[in-house]
Amino acid sequence: MKLISSYNIFALAYNFLGFWWFSACFLLLVILAFYGILSLVKILASKDLIFTIVKEGTAKAVMTAGEQGAFKKFLLQSRGKRFKGGEGDDKWEIETYTEAEEGESVWSWLIDWLGLRGIHFLGMPRFYTVYEYKFRGLSATQSKDGTIEFDRPDDETTNYADIRQAIIQAAVKDAEDKNFVPLSSVLTIPYRIIDPFKALFGIASSEWLRMMLNILLPSFREVNAMFEWLEIQSSRVDFSAKFTENARSDIERLRKEFGLEIGEIGMLTIEPPANLKEASQKPFVARKEAEVVGINAEAEKGRMETVYGTIEKYGALGQLLKYLETLKEASASGKLVVLSLPKVSEIMGSLGLPQETAIDLARRLEGKTADEIKAELTKYLSGK
To answer: Exposed e or buried b for every residue in 132-151, given b needs 16+ CB within 10 A?
Structure first.
């Protein structure tokens, strides 16, 4: 009896521990399975199968019956942004809202907690696909005949519409000014997609960027022809405002018909032909050279006034300074042969200096060049 009792206790303990062991293993398997499902969702989303990943600040168009089929809907991923909805033409226009207006749902909180925000349900593979189109890039050049070339190859595609603020640089070649001078300019055109449906499907082949430039740049050429290029270059802010005002109807058309919001257009550079630019710079260079010459002349005038003022003030000594200045100008190198004591005494004696002064100066100046004699004499006169 005692034996049976001990066995029963052991069996109960074993069963109890086995239950918890089984429960722990089962829970672990559930967690791994759940993690595996989340991982599978992300893998499928990265390949646009059943699910798709929509980057922050972008929208994707969902097509039925394959890529060449009909438009179904847009998938938008942007904090504080949503589609207006309804049944009007502005159904897919993007508007701003605050979370306080709608409240944060439990589902939204769970999506964030699981790290699934940005992953959207797409639909059955091959029946629901993401629309792709050619995006030309944010830099373009328009030639004189109106042809526009972009900085990206024609075969590069994208599968989303970026709804954030962006700027395209447009280089305009040979836009003639008032005097028919061909100018090359670089414009900055800020824009934002506010209705991705109109931008992608309101234009053939989704060429909304090319359409935008083809509508705006003719207005630029019109305004460019109203001014001389020097006027444009000296007052770019005024020109940009004039251009934006002149293109107001085009800007409104881009908003209503093609879902594009245009900001204030600016000008980075404006360049005339090289020969005209060089010619226009010559007066400026000449003025600067004249200023330098004027400064040098003024300095020389001051020096001459100082020197010859000293000459008049100090009589014979000043005459000696003038004599040495004349000898220096007569010398091609600016140097004279070294003067001996008798020669210096003779020069100063001929100028009528007192004997004592002449001998004293002669000893100080013996063996010196004209430049050195002049420096010593100037120093002597200034300290007298």
So the answer is: bbbbbebebbbeeeeebebe
What is d(CA 260, CA 253) in angstroms, rounded to the nearest whole number?
9
Per domain, the residue ranges of the chain are: 2-130, 135-272, 279-382
Q: What is the pTM of this model?
A: 0.62
C-beta separation of 260 from 212 below 8 A: yes
pLDDT at position 134 is 81
**Token reading at 67:** 């890529």
Measured CA distances, 202 to 27, 91, 159, 259, 337 (Å): 53, 14, 17, 9, 93
Q: Residue 78 is encoded by which pair of tokens?
A: 């942007």
* Span 222-235, pLDDT tens digits: 888 888 877 777 76
Which of the following CATH numbers is that of domain 135-272: 3.10.450.50, 3.30.479.30, 2.60.420.10, 3.30.70.100? 3.30.479.30
DSSP string over 5-17: HHHHHHHHHHHHH
3-state secondary structure 231-269: HHHHCHHHHHHHHHHHCHHHHHHHHHHHCEEECCCEEEE
Classify the C-alpha dihedral 321-327-329-334 as positive or negative.
Answer: negative
Instruction: Quote the CA–CA distance of 128 and 67 in Å, as a whole number.
Output: 8
Residue 100 above 60 pLDDT? no
Q: pLDDT tens digits for 2-28? A: 445 555 665 665 566 666 676 778 788
**Residue 302's pLDDT band (boundaries 50, 70, 90)?**
low
Q: Which own/partner contact pairs does 201-206 have at CB distance under 8 Å and 24+ positions apart? A: 201/61, 201/71, 202/257, 202/258, 202/259, 203/258, 205/133, 205/134, 206/133, 206/134
Report the distance separating Cα 314 and Cα 80, nearest Å.
90
Nearest CA-CA partner of 307 in 382, 383, 358 = 382
The answer to whether residue 238 scores a pLDDT higher than 70 is yes
